[in-house]
Design the sequence.
C-alpha cells in the first residue's frame, strides 16, 4: 500500500498579551476607529464580518513545507536546453499523484514549455501535489506559446490546477433560519458531513427566472432591465469549513461566521462538496515567464486579454501559492470555485497585462504581499458572488493607476481590501452581468494614487443607472457598490486631494459608511487585528452572545458588573491581569454577587489596585475572553 506523503501538522501559536495590545478594543490613546471598537465590543451587530479565518486551513495553521519526493530531472527534464520539458514534468506530476501526492522539485535553471493537448502546459487534477523551485529568481518555467479559446474570455494556463469534478454536490436543507455573524446552523440532517469538511451554503431563487431574492442583496440599488444576467446567478453563496458536527444530528458549528441571513423561506441549503474539490496544492519558489512582449491594449485582441496566463486554481481548497514572480504574462493568478487558499509574496515584472490576482466564485482566500511594478488593468479582480476574501498589502508600483475591480456576475460581498497603495475602485464587466458588487465590501486604509478619469476613489466603471448607458456619471458610481465601508482613504503620492463620492466628509447612510478621508486609521490591518483578537480568545465561537462589562472606564469605588447574556454563570473564574499578562488578582466568591441571575457584580475589588489599564479575563470551562478595562 502506498503511504501518501502528506502529513498535516498544526503550528501552535504562542502570542503574548503584550504584543497584542496594539490591536486591543480600546487603544491607550483612544484613537482606534469606532467601527473597530464596535466589532470588538459586539461583533454580532458589527458592520464587519470576521475575516480572521481566511486563508489556508481557515487561518488555523501556517502553510506547510513538505519534503521533496520527485525531481523533474529524474523524469527527463533538462534545464537551459530550449527543448520542450512538458512531457517530462507532467510525468513527474503524474508519478507523484499515483503515490498519493508529493513535492515535484525543479532545480535551478530554465525549463521550457509549449501548450499541451488540453491547451494548458502543465496540469494538476489530484490533491496533495506541490510544485517547488529552488527560488523565484533561479528557477524559471518558460511558456513559449498559448492556446486561443473557443470563446473570447476562455483562459489556458502555464500551470492549471483544476478539480475533475463540478462542485455541485448533494444538498441538505436548513431546518431553521440562521443569521449574519452566526457560527451555528441547523439542518434537516447532518448525515454525510464530518468535522473539517468544506461545504457550500446557498439560497435559491424561488423560480428559475426570478430576481426577487437577488434584489435583497444589492439594496438599495435597483436592477436595470438591461442587466439580463441578474436573475441567473445564485443570490448568495458562501463556502465554509465545518468545525464540529453536533451529536443531535442536525447542528453544525462552522469555522467561519455567516456573511448574510440564510432563511428557510428562501430555500437555504448546504451543498456537500468535500469529495469534489482538490486539497493541499502548493506552487512555490518559481518564476513563471511568458512570451508576451507586444504593446498591451485592453480588449485589443484575445492575446491582449486572455492569451498569456501564469497560474489558475479551479475547485481548490486549503492550498497555497507563495514566492512567485510572474514575467511577461497577461494574467498573474486566478482563483475560481476555490476557498481557504493563501496567496503570498507575489510579484510581476515585464510587459503590461490584463489581470493581476482575481477571485471568482471563491471564498475566504487570503491574498497578501502582492507587488505589481508592471501595470495590470485589473490589479485586483473580484466576481461571481465571491465573499470573505482578504486582500492586504497589495502594492501597485507601476506608476499608473491600479484598479480594484468588482466584475459582476453575482453580488460579491463582505470582501476586505486593506492596507494597500495606488488603487482606486475602478470596475467593469459586461452590462448584462451587472451590478459590479453586492453589499458590505470593506475598503480600509488605502492610498489611492494617480487618477485615471476622475479625482475620486470611485473613478471608473460601467454604469447604466437611471436609464443612462455607456460612460458613467461619477456622482452616482458608488451606487454600484451598495453598503460599502470606506475608511482611511488617502491620496498617497498624488498631488491632488482625494475625495470619496465627491467630498471628504464623514457620511453614513443606506448606500455606504465613509469616514477618515485623507488619513489612515488604526488598526492599520483589520485582518491582523482580528487574528490577534482570536489568538487571545477574545471571541470564542461557542459563546452564544457577547459579554458586556460596565462601566468601563470606571472609578476606583465603582462596582464592576459583567453581563453574561445567555451564557451560564456557573463555574466561571475571573482574574485581573496587568498589561504584560501577569495575573495580579483572582476574584473569589466574597467579591462576586449575582444581580440578577445573568449578571455578576464584583464588589470591594479595587483595594491596592492603582489607576491604569488592566485586562479582565473571564474563563468558563474551555472558553475564555479578555477585555481591557481602564481604572481612573
Sequence:
Amino acid at each position: 500500500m502506498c503511504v501518501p506523503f502528506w502529513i498535516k501538522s498544526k503550528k501552535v501559536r504562542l502570542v503574548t498579551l503584550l504584543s497584542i495590545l496594539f490591536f486591543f478594543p480600546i487603544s491607550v490613546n483612544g484613537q482606534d476607529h469606532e467601527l473597530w471598537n464596535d466589532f470588538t465590543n459586539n461583533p454580532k451587530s458589527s458592520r464587519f464580518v470576521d475575516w480572521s479565518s481566511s486563508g489556508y486551513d481557515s487561518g488555523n495553521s501556517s502553510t506547510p513545507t513538505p519534503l521533496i519526493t520527485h525531481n523533474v530531472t529524474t523524469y527527463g527534464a533538462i534545464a537551459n536546453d530550449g527543448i520542450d520539458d512538458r512531457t517530462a514534468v507532467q510525468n513527474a506530476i503524474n508519478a507523484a499523484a499515483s503515490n498519493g501526492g508529493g513535492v515535484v522539485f525543479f532545480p535551478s535553471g530554465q525549463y521550457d514549455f509549449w501548450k499541451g493537448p488540453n491547451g494548458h502546459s502543465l496540469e494538476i487534477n489530484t490533491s496533495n501535489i506541490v510544485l517547488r523551485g529552488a527560488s523565484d529568481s533561479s528557477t524559471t518555467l518558460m511558456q513559449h506559446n498559448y492556446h486561443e479559446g473557443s470563446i473570447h474570455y476562455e483562459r489556458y494556463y502555464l500551470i492549471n490546477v483544476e478539480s475533475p469534478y463540478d462542485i455541485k454536490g448533494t444538498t441538505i436543507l436548513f431546518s431553521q433560519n440562521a443569521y449574519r455573524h452566526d457560527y451555528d446552523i441547523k439542518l434537516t440532517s447532518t448525515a454525510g458531513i464530518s468535522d473539517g469538511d468544506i461545504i457550500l451554503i446557498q439560497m435559491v431563487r424561488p423560480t428559475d427566472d426570478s430576481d426577487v431574492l437577488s434584489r435583497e442583496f444589492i439594496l438599495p440599488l435597483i436592477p436595470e432591465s438591461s442587466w439580463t444576467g441578474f436573475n441567473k446567478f445564485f443570490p448568495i453563496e458562501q463556502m465554509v469549513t465545518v468545525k464540529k458536527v453536533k451529536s443531535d444530528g442536525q447542528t453544525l458549528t462552522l469555522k467561519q461566521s455567516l456573511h448574510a441571513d440564510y432563511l428557510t423561506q428562501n430555500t437555504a441549503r448546504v451543498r456537500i462538496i468535500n469529495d469534489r474539490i482538490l486539497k493541499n496544492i502548493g506552487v512555490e519558489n518559481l518564476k513563471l515567464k511568458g512570451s508576451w512582449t507586444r504593446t498591451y491594449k485592453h480588449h485589443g485582441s484575445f492575446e491582449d486579454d486572455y492569451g498569456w496566463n501564469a497560474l489558475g486554481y479551479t475547485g481548490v481548497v486549503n492550498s497555497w501559492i507563495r514566492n512567485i514572480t510572474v514575467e511577461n504574462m497577461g494574467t498573474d493568478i486566478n482563483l475560481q470555485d476555490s476557498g481557504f487558499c493563501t496567496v503570498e509574496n507575489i510579484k510581476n515584472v515585464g510587459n503590461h497585462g490584463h489581470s493581476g490576482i482575481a477571485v471568482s466564485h471563491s471564498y475566504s482566500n487570503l491574498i497578501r504581499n502582492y507587488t505589481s511594478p508592471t501595470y495590470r488593468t485589473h490589479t485586483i479582480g473580484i466576481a461571481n458572488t465571491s465573499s470573505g476574501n482578504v486582500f492586504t498589502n497589495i502594492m501597485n508600483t507601476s506608476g499608473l493607476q491600479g484598479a480594484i475591480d468588482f466584475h459582476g456576475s453575482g453580488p460579491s460581498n463582505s470582501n476586505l481590501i486593506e492596507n494597500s497603495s495606488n488603487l482606486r475602485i475602478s470596475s467593469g464587466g459586461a452590462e448584462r452581468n451587472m451590478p459590479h458588487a453586492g453589499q458590505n465590501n470593506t475598503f480600509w486604509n488605502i492610498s489611492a494614487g494617480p487618477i485615471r478619469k476622475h479625482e475620486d476613489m470611485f473613478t471608473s466603471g460601467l454604469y447604466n443607472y437611471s436609464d443612462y448607458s455607456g460612460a458613467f456619471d461619477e456622482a452616482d458610481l458608488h451606487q454600484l457598490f451598495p453598503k460599502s465601508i470606506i475608511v482611511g482613504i488617502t491620496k498617497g503620492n498624488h498631488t491632488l486631494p482625494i475625495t470619496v463620492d465627491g467630498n471628504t466628509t464623514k457620511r453614513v447612510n443606506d448606500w455606504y459608511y465613509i469616514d477618515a478621508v485623507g488619513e489612515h486609521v488604526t488598526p492599520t490591518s483589520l485582518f491582523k487585528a482580528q487574528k490577534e483578537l482570536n489568538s487571545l480568545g477574545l471571541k470564542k465561537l461557542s459563546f452564544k452572545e457577547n459579554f458586556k462589562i460596565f462601566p468601563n472606564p470606571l472609578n476606583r469605588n465603582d462596582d464592576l458588573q459583567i453581563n453574561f447574556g445567555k451564557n451560564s454563570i456557573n463555574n466561571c473564574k475571573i482574574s485581573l491581569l496587568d498589561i504584560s499578562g501577569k495575573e495580579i488578582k483572582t476574584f473569589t466568591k466574597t467579591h462576586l454577587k449575582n444581580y440578577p441571575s445573568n449578571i455578576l457584580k464584583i464588589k470591594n475589588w479595587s483595594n491596592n489596585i492603582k489607576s491604569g489599564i488592566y485586562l479582565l479575563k473571564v474563563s468558563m470551562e474551555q472558553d475564555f475572553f479578555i477585555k481591557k478595562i481602564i481604572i481612573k
Observations:
- The chain has six helices and 40 strands.
- The first helix runs from residue 17 to 20.
